[in-house]
Amino acid sequence: MKSDRLLSILLLLQTRAQVPAHELADRLEVSVRTIYRDIEALSASGIPVYAERGRHGGIALLPGFRTDVTGLTADESRALFILAAQGAHAALGLDQALGSALRKVMAALPAPHRPAAELASRRILVDSARWMPGAPGSIPVPVDLDVLQDAVFSDRRLRLRYRHSGDAEPKTYTVDPYGLVSKAGVWYLVADRHGTPRLFRADRVQLATLTDLPVQRRPGIELADVWGVLKRQVEDRPVGVDVTARVARDRFAQFLRLKGQFLSARPEDDGESEWITVRLGFNAVGDARTLLPFADAVEVLSPSDVRAELARAAAAVTVLYAESGSARR
User: Fold this and answer.
1) Residues 137-195: tens digit of each pLDDT
2) Which of 78, 93, 48 lies closest to 66 in space, CA to CA?
3) Which of 13, 72, 171, 181 has its CA 20 to 30 A from that of 46?
4) First to last CA, the chain
5) What are phi and psi of 104, to 5 degrees?
């Protein structure tokens, strides 16, 4: 839209003393002729903008001119305040600078957009760090967050059909959402169930339904508080058993879909081999038996006690079927 383009030109000119017309044209994906027409339109509306011809010329605003128009839409304002966890900025020593910058941006936002921006900062959290060793890892998959977002921003209770890892059938829960967290690219719903904090992976939600009931959060508790508690619970679990295995490439997509929750690191894939190496985390040696349905498409490389456990389980299955076959004859 022309109005959006005019505002973009104005904001670009405010950040630089002078911008060549061809650069504006490239950035806004229009012709140089269109840029000059836009400059005439800005000038006609009272903006003190002018063009200097020649090799070192360009488009500029008269010195000292500023506008407090941010140009941000409501959605852009919300997006701006969906920030990474404090640790990401603390590592660079920028936590205080970030807070100061956000206060300035908030003051500059159009008044109607401020509540939405502030609410977004309290309901959505992005934590870019991977889980600590021993915590469950996974490969991010696309998920539909629309209903979860509606519940988070409308402050309504949510009914979930949710399948836990290792469960064949989903369970039904009614929860009080605090917000959504993206942890290393994987989305989670943070909510209370009967006043107890719970973590739900978005890609395991089979059905989400908004209720007409208002959310019942614990007084004075925010998303960041609940996330901190849940994150410590997950990362403080015993490390358990670290398994290295290889997965046949033609079964890898199915393996990720069914066993991705056990990944503790990104798969090692050279793009050519018939096998892809994975690192898995189990609570106990016996838990690795969940790999048996993949038969010869998954081979555990280490540790030796897990290999031995799977070999015993496979041998027991062989004996069972051999004996049952003899009995039928």
Assistant:
1) 554 445 678 889 889 889 999 999 998 876 778 899 999 999 999 887 788 999 999 99
2) 48
3) 72
4) 80
5) -65, -40
